[in-house]
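Lecture notes, unit on binding sites. The following record was shown on slide 14. It pairs a sequence with coenzyme A.
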Amino acid sequence: MGHAETGLLWRTWGLYPRVMIATMIAEESFIDFKCPHCGEPVSFPRDCIGFARECPTCLECLVVPVGDAQVGRKLPLPITTARLVLRRLGGGDWKDLLELLADEELFRYTDGRPLEEEEVLNWLQSDSHVKLTSPGQPFYLGIQARDGGKLIGYLSLHFADPQRLQAGLNICLNRNCQRKGFALEAVRALLEFCFDGIRLHRVTALCDSRNAAACRLFEGAGLRREGELVKDKFFNGEWASTVCYAALQEEYREAAANSPAPAP
Ligand SMILES: CC(C)(COP(=O)(O)OP(=O)(O)OC[C@H]1O[C@@H](n2cnc3c(N)ncnc32)[C@H](O)[C@@H]1OP(=O)(O)O)[C@@H](O)C(=O)NCCC(=O)NCCS
């Protein structure tokens, strides 16, 4: 229904039952399309365009399409970069994850402790039920090297708001693969997924102020240093400070527009 018709309805509204007018106008603010997974019709408010949402029929994640597309989009996963594939974790990753997570050094500046085999297996088991839209659950993506296929780390997104438009990111990389630019490559690709793929409003990252690798990483990926929580946590016998990084969708787009075009 176009705006002209809506106006006509208002002008002649005495001819229609009040409930019917409200319904017809409300329908204008919804977009109807088919789920890309099960093919069933779905309807979402227009202000959800571009966001990841759950199909009410098959419960899979879809991206609400832009314009007059008849079918929604699937999540743009896995993500392939020059040297990496970012993909959901699977049961077969347990050995590589155990190698990563058994390393005490990984937890030098972060909460947590090395994991044992059974804990890694349990984690993978519970993660297999998690979707991007699962409330209160971090969404993990494994970082796999294209060369050799080894899982060298993981990223996670933690959604803080009920609309799921703001996420905190976390990353861990196998010590043997650090300082080769893999983390930067993975975080850049994740930001593209967050801002272009599912149109998040804001992405944040927190790290210990002594964690030079994480600070350089987040700054290199274009996140803005937003502030520092001074001595906000008691960690390994001393008070440590947390640095907060963030990027808004508009900042990301502006930076992308101003960055030089890739070489042909
Ligand atoms: C943080 C982490 C993911 C960085 O991984 P990485 O593979 O070494 O990162 P990259 O090679 O992509 O380097 C990113 C930047 O950090 C710098 N960097 C990496 N390790 C560093 C270190 N130990 N000291 C100082 N700078 C370091 C790199 O030089 C690079 O900066 P540059 O582009 O200005 O040269 C890795 O150290 C890690 O897994 N740490 C444990 C978990 C953690 O702390 N996660 C962050 C909190 S969410």
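Take-home: The longest helix spans residues 182-197.
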